[in-house]
Amino acid sequence: MSERPYVTLSCAMSIDGYLDSAEPARLAMSNAADLDRVDAVRAHHDAIMVGASTVRRDNPRLLVRDAARRARRLATGRYESPAKVTVTASGELSPDAAFFTTGDGPRIVYCPRERATAVRDRLGDRATVVGLGEDCVTMAALVEHLGAQEGVRSLMVEGGGTVLTQFLSADLVDELHLVVAPFFVGEARAPRVVGPAAYPWTAGRRAHLADTRQIGDVVLLRYALSERFGMLDARESATGAEALAAQAADAEAVTAELP
Ligand SMILES: NC(=O)c1ccc[n+]([C@@H]2O[C@H](COP(=O)([O-])OP(=O)(O)OC[C@H]3O[C@@H](n4cnc5c(N)ncnc54)[C@H](OP(=O)(O)O)[C@@H]3O)[C@@H](O)[C@H]2O)c1
């Protein structure tokens, strides 16, 4: 059995713990410098995942934006941007969503086994559709499949709350990047960063806060949630001097943008 991919959760929330507002237009939580940091983190992962609601609501491209980072990925034998992964039970995904029409990497859709044929018919050659499980897909099975069948060694999960809740409560996360934006949402119908669940970290078993960083008007909290924390940094370093230089350049670029 292959080692399960290194999992990084990354999201931004309001002071009162919401991922978005309930209004039709998406609420921007982050600022430009933090979005650039997220871009650098994306560039270090093999795959990026969001839930199907995020694909429908936000229509994200999920690409590495910075040209130099894309070039470095190509130079080390990777796609310009990570593979894209989503999960759906309903199968309600449009083949014309930016998730499927942008970028050079693979797109993988997980769904319950009995939905797989219908989802394949709907998406055609725009994605690889993988049927896993009966009524819903467990995140443990999804991560296992990504590692063993798709060659994914690192996965960045960007939301939304339904997906974040499942990864965290299943104890599948190696590190959490939580950004706090300087405002309140205060709407009961808005999506929360996570929902009710049995989480491994409680008042009796506190998570390890590995780092904090102010990035303009937001703050980044970096939590170590497994003994493998930091392994991705070490792995990236092991790919050679070029990758090391690239990481340093990314870090300098982000620092330079800070006020
Ligand atoms: N602030 C941030 O950093 C950030 C990041 C990402 C997203 N967001 C926001 O988060 C909101 C969406 O969050 P959300 O919690 O509503 O949705 P979500 O987590 O993006 O997606 C939930 C959907 O994923 C599918 N799904 C989840 N778990 C599944 C499982 N185990 N098996 C099968 N399918 C599964 C289902 O799709 P089907 O309905 O198709 O069955 C479900 O409705 C949006 O407002 C978005 O803007 C914010």
From TrEMBL:
The keyword NADP applies. Residues 5-219 form the Bacterial bifunctional deaminase-reductase C-terminal domain. InterPro entries: DHFR-like_dom_sf, RibDG_C, Riboflavin_Biosynth_HTPR. Pathway: Cofactor biosynthesis; riboflavin biosynthesis. It comes from the Bacteria. Pfam families: RibD_C. SUPFAM superfamilies: Dihydrofolate reductase-like. Keywords: NADP, Oxidoreductase. The keyword Lyase does not apply. This is Dihydrofolate reductase family protein. It comes from Microbacterium arthrosphaerae.
